[in-house]
């Protein structure tokens, strides 16, 4: 009886403490002199032995149900153990005078039932072990997924920080590009002004060339006028001399002719020649003044042209450098836009992966809660 008690208490105690307590109480009621396995040599209480075996069969019947959860098994075992009423315990604890003989079949059935109980307990332990292993695997997978979620969150935070940095750099580059465009517009405006000034300088140079031509023409006219004046003076003098000779020949006297010649020279030739000389001198003075003024204007325009050419060269250099900087800024802007698009794509991928992992984690949590509810 102690061997059977140990076996029953060992296996039932691992399943449910409440059932183990009921079985222990039932076995103790038989007394220390009870021997369940004494049927080979003869038992003194076969009816009590048979009743215990029947109740044991009823108790461990639910252990052999493999498709049911462990929780249902424990509930049904508890209900089966509750059938050990006080009357049953009293009947098991009766006087030892009612012992009967127990044949070998009872012992064989008891051993078979114990083996079945052991097998059922082994299967239950195997199921429990598998459930614990599965639970541990799910817990490990949950931990791994949580680690992945944390890692992805950190990556997402880093990507957001880099994205914010790229946005800031893009804003700075855009502002710098706007400033360069403004400076380029100013340089273009100055360049247009310089071009206009250069055109004006060219026009002034053309005017200076025309003035030089006019000066040369005036000088030629002055020379022609002087030659004409000299020729007219000579011609008038010749005419006067001829007239004097004619008058001398007619009159036959030299003195009146001489006096008349002096009067003619004073009254006829000198005033006309003086007027012509005064006009010629006045024209020559005007032309000389215009010539000096033109030369001064030409000198000033040449200096202005030299200064404007220097400004044009500087403005051209500045414009070329501004265009170069603008091209570099455009290249940098395109590069930043590509990096921004790549960062946005990466952030979107991380968000999608994070959502998938969150859904998977929620599914694992739901499965785990369902398994815990079943156990």
From TrEMBL:
Keyword annotations of the record: Coiled coil
GO molecular function: DNA-binding transcription factor activity, RNA polymerase II-specific; RNA polymerase II cis-regulatory region sequence-specific DNA binding
Coiled coil listed as a keyword: yes
Coiled-coil stretches: 121-214, 291-367
InterPro entries recorded: LRRFIP1/2
Record keyword Coiled coil present: yes
Source domain of life: Eukaryota
PANTHER family, per database record: LEUCINE RICH REPEAT IN FLII INTERACTING PROTEIN, LEUCINE-RICH REPEAT FLIGHTLESS-INTERACTING PROTEIN 1
Family named by the database record: Belongs to the LRRFIP family.
Name of this protein: LRR binding FLII interacting protein 1
